[in-house]
Amino acid sequence: MKYTDIKLLARIVSLVSLGKMKKLEGELNRALSSGVKVERIEEAILQCYLFAGFPAVIEGFMVLRKFIRESPKKSKGYSVEKFYSSGVKTCKKVYGESFDKLVKNMKSLHPELLEWMLIEGYGKVLSRDVLSLKERELLNVSILTSLGWKRQLHSHLRGALNVGVKRDDITKIIEEIADICGVTKIKRALKIFEDILYHS
User: Fold this and answer.
1) 113-136 burial code (b ≥16 CB/10 A, e <16)
2) Cα–Cα distance, 200 to 196 (Å, whole number)
3) First-last CA distance in the chain
4) Which residues in the chain are classed under CATH 1.20.1290.10?
5) How many other CB atoms sit within 10 Å of the CB of residue 7?
6) In angstroms, rounded to a whole number, what is the distance separating the alpha carbons of residues 150 and 192?
7) Burial degree of 50 (CB within 10 A; 0-12, 13-18, 19+)
8) Is 159:128 a contact under the CB 8 Å cutoff?
9) Residue 200 predicted with pLDDT over 90
10) Are 47 and 13 in contact (CB under 8 A)?
11) Alpha carbon of 81 to those of 53, 86, 115, 126: distances in Å?
12) Domain covering 3-76+128-199, topology
């Protein structure tokens, strides 16, 4: 995992998720000047779709294309069966022993929610290459800290630990986006993480 890259990508996804497109221009320029590969930046912005939705991702790419005009290489293709299979594997890595409980909870909310989560979230998005699962979980933490979704943040803080991210790296990535999403959200995220560590 390239920590210098992921630190810059965390700032990018935080800005995209919050719709701060003017500041995004400066952050993209900084990342590109620091040698972060374009395809890694593209993957980070695509990942925002999971929690921030299409509008944020579309606007993020519109800003990126001011710097990088050429289109990315071909689409990786769309296979529901492949996404489901890889989604289950990835979700099990992130949730560990809590996977069965997650399945039960999602089914109780709505049966299709579980399928969408595994196919779309863990298969189509989080099982992609270019970024490692450790890096993707750190980006999830950045996005969810920024958006203030406490329950999902708790899950992905645990997920980051489950896939082998070091505690210090998680804390640093949260603190890295303080100037973007504000002190209140950072304190809340660090408190959630502290509670997880205390009870583990």
Assistant:
1) ebeebbbbbbbbbbbbeebebbbb
2) 6
3) 24
4) 3-76+128-199
5) 19
6) 8
7) buried
8) no
9) no
10) yes
11) 23, 9, 11, 15
12) AhpD-like (1.20.1290)
The predicted structure's pLDDT at residue 149: 97
Provide mean pLDDT across the span 77-103: 95
Average pLDDT, the chain: 94
Q: Which structure tokens are listed for 198?
A: 């205390």
Query: Can you give the pTM of this predicted structure?
Result: 0.95
Judged by DSSP in three states, 21 sits in: helix
Question: 3-state DSSP call for residue 195?
Answer: helix
**In sequence order, what are the residues at sequence separation of 6 or more whose Cβ sits closer than 8 angstroms to the Cβ of residue 166?**
none
48: phi then psi, degrees, rounded to nearest 5: -60, -25
Q: Provide the pLDDT for residue 74.
A: 73
Closest CA to 72 of 47, 52, 43, 44: 43
Task: Name the residue type at position 144.
Answer: L
Give which of 112, 178, 129, 121 is closest to 155, Cα–Cα. Answer: 121
